[in-house]
Specification:
21% of the residues lie in helices and 37% in strands. The chain is built from two helices and 13 strands, in the order E-E-E-E-E-E-E-H-E-E-E-E-E-E-H. The longest helix is centred in the last third of the chain and has 35 residues. The termini are far apart. The C terminus is likely disordered.
Length: 182
């Protein structure tokens, strides 16, 4: 992978925190989430003042970047039945392969069609004997377009939240079945 810009999340709550660049003091993002009761409505990704709007609308299941809104179903594809990879595309010419690896420190990897790693996202890891680690995002310096950078960040945030939701659903289902006596 080319040189990376590493962003660390100030908290484990990836949808309501600040992403600080370790390398460039001037580059940072903030995520903020609007809730209605206990349900998530939308999450905004904000960069420098005057930067374009970027948002995940959780209710409508859409991404908005620079005023253009698209449904997640248009953006994400799964090619093979037994593959854990998903293919995301916002731009007509570029498709990204997104894959989660629990053995690699709970890391999401975004690769270009040619296989070049463009980004990684390591989720919050709870450790028993060592300190917990906060989430970290690495973006390749080859990503020059800010809309492309924001799209990749949204994809990683969306993918991690959906992964966590599915883990909670499995845990609740397991506890529910166990309590029923199944």
């Amino acid at each position: 992978m080319e040189s990376l810009t590493t962003f660390t999340f100030e908290s484990a709550k990836i949808l309501s925190t600040t992403l600080l660049s370790r390398d460039l003091a001037s580059v940072k993002y903030t995520t903020s989430t609007v809730r209605k009761g206990s349900s998530r409505q939308s999450t905004s990704l904000v960069g420098a003042p005057g930067s374009p709007d970027t948002e995940i609308d959780w209710k409508r299941n859409t991404f908005t970047i620079s005023g253009e809104t698209r449904h997640v179903g248009e953006l994400r594809k799964k090619r093979a039945t037994f593959s854990s990879s998903r293919y995301w595309s916002w731009f007509d010419c570029e498709e990204y392969r997104v894959k989660y690896d629990s053995e690699l420190e709970n890391t999401w990897t975004v690769s270009s069609y040619s296989g070049t790693v463009l980004a990684t996202f390591s989720s919050n890891i709870h450790r028993v004997f060592h300190g917990n680690s906060l989430p970290a995002l690495n973006l390749s310096s080859s990503i020059h377009d800010e809309d492309e950078r924001r799209f990749i960040i949204l994809v990683l945030l969306y993918s991690e939240i959906k992964r966590l939701e599915s883990l909670r659903a499995v845990a609740i289902d397991f506890i529910g079945r166990r309590n029923v006596g199944l």
